[in-house]
Task: inverse folding
């Protein structure tokens, strides 16, 4: 059942974070639904601009509609990840999305507010909620490259003003994470001090943590042993999610870790069976592996086991 992101946030705030997982294809979608049902968790499916144009946006939407029928017990929201004005307005008009993210974080403060407000006005008119971003994550975001050293953490005072003036429903904050598999060059970690100051000014307001993949060392080792070259890859300590939840983090974005599962399964499959060429071989291994990965993440986020609670709240 597709529900509004707002309802998921109301249920989760302060108790657990909802996992927001990016999808690009059928196998990921199957593993995603299975893993969330296995761990009895509500979840958010995220579609990036790149995912929408990978084949055709209608393909992913069709796959999600079919998954909703195949897994009738699932409770989830559908979200546009890192949209611009054009893609946000397109998703709002489509009526399929529960929420959209407008990412104008690379613009000036006032311009970010102006663009975000334009999306908020259009989205709220159709009952769709909006995530915005303030501050800049390190790493690579679509086609924008931000040097990790200059990553611009969210200013707590500005966060309050930004939310009040733009009317956005949740805010992606920069607290030290970055997208991709190479997040920290040394011993850096999350800035809980910044998060606490943001929550002080925005109590009971859902905050979003992007760039939250943990890039497990054993996964990287297996990928490298099977022909990969990902030396130095490093992510967020997934045991830190529980510390972020009471500080207002209600949505945690994870994409890279799922790609690593895909990469490891396919590299090992074709390394070990070089005579094979059928896509269904690794696909049959990937889907349950991806489901296992999702269930594990939900345990770390605290969303595992919360499905019935959400179902009752929605009734
Ligand atoms: O933040 C970026 C997400 O991981 C989506 O990645 O734009 O390559 O689909 P993508
Ligand atoms: P990762 O690259 O850490 O998985 O972050 C994903 C993300 O923030 C999607 O918006
Ligand atoms: Zn992101």
Result:
């Amino acid at each position: 059942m597709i529900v509004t992101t707002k309802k998921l946030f109301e249920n989760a705030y302060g108790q657990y974070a909802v996992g927001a997982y990016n999808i690009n294809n059928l196998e990921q979608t199957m593993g995603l639904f299975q893993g969330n049902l296995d761990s009895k968790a509500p979840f958010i499916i995220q579609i990036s601009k790149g995912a929408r144009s990978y084949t055709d946006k209608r393909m992913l939407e069709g796959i999600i509609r079919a998954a909703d029928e195949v897994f009738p017990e699932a409770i989830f929201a559908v979200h546009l990840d890192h949209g611009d004005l054009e893609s946000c307005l397109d998703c709002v008009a489509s009526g399929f999305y529960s929420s959209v993210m407008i990412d104008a974080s690379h613009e000036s403060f006032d311009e970010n507010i102006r663009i975000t407000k334009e999306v908020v006005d259009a989205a709220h008119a159709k009952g769709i909620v909006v995530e915005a971003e303030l501050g800049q994550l390190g790493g690579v975001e679509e086609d924008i490259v931000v040097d990790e050293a200059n990553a611009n953490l969210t200013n707590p005072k500005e966060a309050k003003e930004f939310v009040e003036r733009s009317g956005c429903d949740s805010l992606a904050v920069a607290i030290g994470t970055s997208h991709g598999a190479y997040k920290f060059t040394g011993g850096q970690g999350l800035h809980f001090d910044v998060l606490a100051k943001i929550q002080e000014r925005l109590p009971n307001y859902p905050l979003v943590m992007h760039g939250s993949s943990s890039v497990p060392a054993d996964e990287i080792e297996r990928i490298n042993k099977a022909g990969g070259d990902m030396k130095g890859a490093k992510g967020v300590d997934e045991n830190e999610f529980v510390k972020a939840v009471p500080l207002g983090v209600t949505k945690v974005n994870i994409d890279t870790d799922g790609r690593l599962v895909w990469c490891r399964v396919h590299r090992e499959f074709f390394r070990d069976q070089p005579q094979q060429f059928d896509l269904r071989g690794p696909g049959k291994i990937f889907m349950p592996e991806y489901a296992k990965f999702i269930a594990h993440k939900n345990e770390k986020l605290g969303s595992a086991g919360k499905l019935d609670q959400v179902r009752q709240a929605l009734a």
